Amino acid sequence: MSEAFLEELWRREEAFMVSAKPEFRHGLRFVGVSSIAGQFYCEFKVENEFALGELPSKAKAQGTALHDELVPEVEIGKDAFSALVRRKEPSFAVLRLWGSVAGLRIIGTPDHVIWSEGRPVWLVELKTTKGDPGLLWDDQVVQTRIYGLLLDLMGFNCSSLRLALVRLRGSELSEDDKGPWILRVSKALTDGTTSELESEYAGRMKFHLLVHDRAAAVASIGAKRGYWRGEREPTSSTSVAKCRACEYSQVCTKSLAAK
Ligand code: SF4
Description:
Blueprint: H1 3-18, E1 31-32, H2 33-39, H3 43-52, H4 58-70, H5 78-85, E2 91-92, E3 97-101, E4 104-108, E5 112-116, E6 119-128, H6 138-153, E7 162-168, H7 175-178, H8 181-191, H9 194-200, E8 205-211, H10 214-228, H11 240-245
Parallel strand pairs: 1-4, 6-7
Antiparallel strand pairs: 2-5, 3-4, 5-6, 7-8
Helix pairs in contact: 2-6, 6-10, 8-9
The structure holds iron/sulfur cluster.
């Protein structure tokens, strides 16, 4: 990856941002990766988030705070980003991802990207849970895959890219574990020692390793684009369990949970 590539990338990003019009549902100029992923849980929940606003909850606030502790970030400039990601030894840097797919302008920022010699080699999403880290949910897989697709569409060399969805019972980590957590996850991925880290935290964390699959990511977006383009109304959950777990269950007109 050359300096010229990055200069051109920043120029293309600016053009992408300024040319966007509020053409999507809810007057959006861009559709968030997490919103598309959310459609795979319940599309009506995404609708509620825009129509009613996000409902604050103690559990959500605790989850966000924990996430920030586990994946701390420091803002750096474009020159520092360029120097960092072009090193041979693995380096860590995230950036806003963007691209047009299936008639949607999509943006989002992943949790963590590991780079080597200008190539993204691991894209990592961290999901904290109170349940079983071994379970894998469609919405989380879709989110991770779309981030990979956007990196690819932006023009980065993704020939070595792999995806890791790390699910973790974060509240069971000690304070000493939290600080170096993302470094340990990164080292396990680049050294190929994920099984060892899983054994050390048996029952508390799981690496779900995914292949970078452009076609699968494009198909996921294609399946949900009609909602954003105003071509159809939102679908709603057919699962009582999902409705019971949903923060909108008491106010949602489609809820299957008893009110
Ligand atoms: S209550 Fe059920 S139908 Fe309504 S938003 Fe939540 S999951 Fe979807």
